[in-house]
Amino acid sequence: MKKDFNDIGFNISTKQHNIMIEMLYTKQMIREKMYENDDEKLLLALHLKELSDELVKEFQKNNKKQIEEYKSIYNEMIKKEEER
Predict the structure, then answer these.
(1) Looking at the 3D structure of the chain, how many domains does it have?
(2) Of the four listed, 10, 23, 53, 65, which is most buried by Cβ atoms within 10 Å?
(3) Domain that holds residue 39
């Protein structure tokens, strides 16, 4: 079991990488107003939300063990803090 957050190595898949790139492009389109009307802006914002949700699901799927280690370290920190 890991003892520190820095000891945990998370996995990033090609799919996650591609999602992040698409999120950056979508954010840039919104920021630079690369849409013609409010409906298109809304669609871009919804697409960004969908990408974010998909990224979270992929991350959780690919890092189950690391997430458990993270939770364990976090809970130990909370437990030590409460004991003070």
Answers:
(1) 1
(2) 23
(3) 12-83
